Structure formats: C-alpha cells, structure tokens
C-alpha cells in the first residue's frame, strides 16, 4: 500500500491565508481532499469546528448548457437557499467577483479568467468560511493570474475567509500566503514552513516577494534531495 501522507500535523488559524507548496506527487491535493471530506484519512482526525467548506479547482468546471446565472443558482439550490433569494444573491456574488454584466452569458463566451471568477462566485454561493483552492490559476496567463491574485486577496479580506491554497509556484505562494507550508514527497509530508511577514497588497515582482520566493525554492530543493 502506498502512503500518500505521513505524520501531517497542521493547525490553521481562522482567517489565515495558508499556501501548500510542493512538487507534483507530494500530497498537496490529497491533503486538500481530506479537508474537503472527499477522501477519508486512514489514521488521524481532521477538525473543522463546524465550518462550511467550499472548494475551487484548476478547471472552472462550469456546466456549458447553463448561463452564468444558472451555474451559480445551482450552487444556491444545493445549499438550500430559497428560490426567492436567487436573483439578489446571484447579483451580489457577480458584483463581488466584478462580473456584474455576465449573468446571461454561457461559459464558452467567457475568457479563462472570467470562467474562474464565475467558479469563485459559485463556490462563495455555498456560504463557506473555509475556501480550498487547488491550483486555481495554473492555466491562466501571467496578467490574468495576477489580476486573480488581487481579486482573491480582496475577497479573502472582505469576507474574513480562511483560505488553503495549493500551488507549485514559489512566487505565487510568497505573493499570497500569510504562511507557506513546504511539502516533500515519498511519502508526502510537511518539510518546513515559512511566515511571509510582508504588508499587503503585494506585487509578484517586488524584491521582498522575490527574496521569500528564493528561500522557498531553496527549501523545495533541499526537500527533494
């Protein structure tokens, strides 16, 4: 039997923006799936304190036959929101992700960044207080990715969310995280952690972000060797 994760002991404070950083196969997504309840641990426990979970993936996974409004309404319906509240809630969520005029569009009419904004709105429709993000911007171009970093940081701050963000990009983790957990493979485990004590908002190319990214890169290389 292959061990995906071994001896992972992690406390996350409410309202923290935590990044999980590591190469493919080190257990980042497995850990996220365990927190989301998509998989169950063979040993140990996961304590969420009754908080609701929302999860966002690299693929927006929007239903192509539904409009943007329809995709978000589906999440509201599954969350038990009364139908009478749908219109106001959808409008509010689209305003939150800065797509107020997109309700009637279908996924094929949206850019990659717009689809991810809709996916984020659909996730927020679940009234989650813990937002899990599994490399959500990995397929976006650099300019769109930077814009999504800004939007994610703004929404995290406005809503007081706890975010667990999976990435293999050292600069992205230094740009976004309050704390970065560096993971190592074979089996997946926590190798080290780094506090990113930098003021917000941050820029990807800021020298302080670059220096933290260089330190994270060094730790990643040490964990592989």
From TrEMBL:
What is the protein's given name?
ABC transporter ATP-binding protein
Listed GO MF terms? ATP binding
Task: Using the record's annotation, list all stretches that form the ABC transporter domain.
Answer: 1-210
Judging by the UniProt lineage, the source's domain of life is Bacteria
Q: Which SUPFAM superfamilies does the UniProt entry name for this protein?
A: P-loop containing nucleoside triphosphate hydrolases
Q: Which UniProt keywords apply?
A: ATP-binding, Nucleotide-binding, Transport
One Pfam assignment? ABC_tran
Q: Which Gene3D superfamilies does this one have?
A: P-loop containing nucleotide triphosphate hydrolases (3.40.50.300)
């Amino acid at each position: 039997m292959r061990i995906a994760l071994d001896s992972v002991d992690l406390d996350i404070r409410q309202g923290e923006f935590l990044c999980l950083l590591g190469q493919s196969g080190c257990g980042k997504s497995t850990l996220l799936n365990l927190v989301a309840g998509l998989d169950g641990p063979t040993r140990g426990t996961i304590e969420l304190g009754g908080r609701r979970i929302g999860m966002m993936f690299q693929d927006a996974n929007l239903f192509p036959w539904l409009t943007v409004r329809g995709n978000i309404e589906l999440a509201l319906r599954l969350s038990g929101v009364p139908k009478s509240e749908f219109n106001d809630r959808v409008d509010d969520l689209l305003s939150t992700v800065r797509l107020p005029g997109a309700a009637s569009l279908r996924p094929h009419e949206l850019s990659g960044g717009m689809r991810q904004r809709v996916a984020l709105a659909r996730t927020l429709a679940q009234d989650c207080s813990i937002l899990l993000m599994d490399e959500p911007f990995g397929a976006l171009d650099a300019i769109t990715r930077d814009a999504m970093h800004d939007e994610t940081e703004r929404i995290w701050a406005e809503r007081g969310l706890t975010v667990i963000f999976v990435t293999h990009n050292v600069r992205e983790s230094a740009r976004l995280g309050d704390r970065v957990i560096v993971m190592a493979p074979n089996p997946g485990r926590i190798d080290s952690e780094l506090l990113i004590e930098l003021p917000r908002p941050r820029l990807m190319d800021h020298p302080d972000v670059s220096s933290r990214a260089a330190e994270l890169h060094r730790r990643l290389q040490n964990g592989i060797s």
